[in-house]
Design brief:
Polyamine Oxidase, Chain A, domain 2, 3 domains, eight-stranded mixed sheet
Length: 459
Amino acid sequence: MKTLDCLIIGGGFAGLQCAQRLHQAGLAVQVLEARERLGGRTRVAPLAGRTVDIGGQWIGAGHSELTALAQAAGAAIVPQYAEGARLLHLTSGHRDRVKRYRGLIPNANPLALLELDRAIRRLNRDSQSLSLDAPWQAAQASRWDHETLATWKQRHLRTRTGREIFDIAVRSVMTAEPGMLSRLGFLFYCASNNGFEALTSVEGGAQAATVGGGMVQLAEHLAAPLQAEHRVALNADVHRIVRTEHAWRVEDRQQRQWHAHRVVCALPPALQDRISVEPALPADRARLANRMPMGSVIKVVVAYATPFWREAGLSGEAVSHSLPFNTVFDASPREGATGALVGFIDGAPARHWSARPSEERRQAVLDSLVRYFGPQAAEPLDYVEHDWVTDPWSRGCYVGLMTPGLLTELGPALRTPWSGIHWAGTETATEFCGYIEGAIRSGQRAADEVLTALADRRR
């Protein structure tokens, strides 16, 4: 059997970008993808006669590599609709309120607004002190890393409203509760993505634009030259990697085998324990599987006859601290002939609703939309969802979580190659970590590592 230059495990954006870069350099490569499709944590589904994203979908400001890829694929880049007021649902005592607002921070009592402003400025100031390549080397790294974001919140936000709004923002970005997150990890995430405001914004932020027809077409564009030469294998669930005398032998559960001088594992750390490695991985890398769980999210897109919320002067953006469907955006087609809302059940509510029957979950989503937008929201044309919590090839979304102590104890293991195995995936990105842009850049970095290693070997 021919020994390849490199095997890439994972057919998401990181793996495909890595494979394409190596293929263009003339190397013999093979992509192994466990799913029956490409695209990783992106996914599309039909809804009311069109194709919509039920996985990763946004191109953010500064996502230059993803923008270039969309342009190369000939895909339409569609600005995220954001005209009009946003909605905030809060509970205070026995009061249940939906408030309109514009800008980053909702209208609230003056003390809550002051607290939030100070908290955001403190987060941005501390995040700017970090090195993106090695945040664990910061002067305060150990103290920040072993403190949860919830503990920090309790010190700096005293009002209930301030804490609820902060929780909403964190959960919408990380699909996890502040108590699960390292303060250092969150600071790094902010720094990697141009600050707290960018993470939570449409204009100039992480939700700036979408791709007409769905994000998966960009993965398919990356894969096309590889597939033309039969360099992509689907339904290839890798379960074993073994070091032989001269190379690595990779086996899937169908007992197929491949041999390669280098291996790139383009999977989230939470999935690496699906694969047995012989000899065993270094302890720090192996521990990442248990120390970096995925966030929890169920994504839903609901179609309507018209984007009726626009007539009321609303952008379609809505968030809540207590409703099941707690982060919502306008997802209407560009011409606005029909309407659609896309949103998420995220964090702890996602784990709760993942265990409920689908019809009960659907009703909870529609009830939430009625609370935001009124009775018209109770009559959809179509409905589609994907539960990423139970997806066996993701185990959650959007990204692996940086839990307390992770970065200072295990951070270097995220990217450090070992004995011919390299690591890619958005969790390993230094810039735009957690986003498709970060996945693409991580694939480029891993490919460059392989090219350098193989060039040194051949000298």
